[in-house]
Amino acid sequence: MPTHTRIRMFNTKATYPNQSLDNDLCQAVRAGNTVYVRGQVGTDFEGRLVGLGDPAAQADQAMKNVEQLLEEAGSALSHIVKTTTYITDPRFREPVYRVVGQWLEGVFPISTGLVVAGLAQPEWLMEIDVIAVIPEEEGAA
């Protein structure tokens, strides 16, 4: 019996055609009642970049992806416990965090933010990964 469930498995050959990678990955993993979501960027699940040059638009698309992946795993945005946000320019902090904050209003996760030299594709301005839980049902032993 598997110890975890892989959600939206893919191979990096399709995701990064401009690079010579061949790795099997997935967008999220459900392990017990914990969900780990891979770093999400401003690209939708069909591979289209949303918000070229616009960190806020990329953050909005990334959070749409996070929401969908959590739902597919049996969780929700309200169950996020930790976020890690990566931005490629310190000036992107306000627009990116404003958008993420709108998506997570009232959730109160812990968060880490990093400014990095670059992400896997040069047009990506931000990336966010999350850890969430799947709450136990009320009354369950």
TrEMBL record:
EC id: 3.5.-.-
Gene3D superfamilies named in the record: RutC-like
The keyword Lyase belongs to this UniProt entry's keyword annotation: no
Pfam families with a match to the protein in the record: Ribonuc_L-PSP (PF01042)
NADP in keyword set: no
Keywords: Hydrolase
Enzyme class, UniProt record, top EC level: hydrolase
Example GO molecular function: hydrolase activity
Entry's family note: Belongs to the RutC family.
PANTHER family for the chain: 2-IMINOBUTANOATE/2-IMINOPROPANOATE DEAMINASE RIDA (PTHR11803), PROTEIN HMF1-RELATED (PTHR11803:SF58)
Protein name per UniProt: RidA family protein
Annotated organism of origin: Halomonas kalidii
Lineage: Bacteria, Pseudomonadati, Pseudomonadota, Gammaproteobacteria, Oceanospirillales
